[in-house]
Amino acid sequence: MANVSVYNMEGKEVGRMDLNDAVFGVEINEHLVHMAVVQRLANKRQGTQKAKTRSEVSGGGRKPWRQKGTGHARQGSTRAPQWKGGGVVFAPVPRDYSFKMNKKEKQAALRSALTSRVQGNKLIVLDELKLDEIKTKGMKKVLDNLNVEKALVVTAAIDNNIILSARNLPAVCVSYVVIEAEGEERKVNSTINVYDIMKYDTVVLTKDAVANIEEVYA
Questions:
Q1: Same domain? 113 vs 74
Q2: Helical H runs in the chain?
């Protein structure tokens, strides 16, 4: 079981905590991590590129010259691909690049990504993360105290002060894993994903976020 340090917002170590091996200590499956990253990028593609084939460009309805006797190569249309203004061979058409992954595959990929950050000493746990106001300087100061520049910050609540304070920091992304109770049912609202975990150099988690991640993905 991995045992990591817990820091406060001033960057001082205030304790240690154990991480659940079912989430942060699994065998890394590089194939699933790669697939999750490719899926994220593929799903973001618009797929709206379009070019006209010879059947779609205007003109070229008549044969430009007779079949024989002119000395030219035979031609059937001025809109064939070899002509200026002609159609494109195998022209791209709008398509959907997205594909699906099974739920268990996604969860396994997320566990593998988190484990890789623990093994690489790129995971930091905060006892709490609270900002009294929306201030980019406040968020920057916390990250500077932790000696972190390019970071994924994960919280256990949708805190607008944190989200908006990090918005103008180009190398910082804020995600959250929120567990909401609706009667006897539990609703999970999570924006954490494999792509962001692998994109940013360091993952900064609050203690509450660690607890929520272990509860949802263990």
A1: no
A2: 21-24, 30-44, 103-119, 136-145, 160-165, 194-199, 207-217
Q: Please answer whether residues 107 and 22 qualify as being in contact, where contact means their C-beta atoms are separated by less than 8 angstroms.
A: no
Nearest by Cα to 116 from 36, 39, 208? 36
Number of domain units in the chain: 2
pLDDT tens for 107-155 read 999 999 999 999 999 999 999 999 999 999 999 999 999 999 999 999 9
User: For residues 62-85, b (16+ Cβ closer than 10 Å) or e, as one string?
Assistant: eeeeeeeeeeeeeeebbbeeebee
Same structural domain, 8 and 111: yes
* Residue 71 to residue 45: CA distance in whole angstroms: 49
Query: In terms of Cα–Cα distance, which of 79, 21, 28 is closest to 53?
Result: 79
pLDDT digits (tens, 9 = 90+) for 151-178: 999 999 999 999 999 999 999 999 999 9
β-pairing, 172-182 vs 13-18, is unpaired
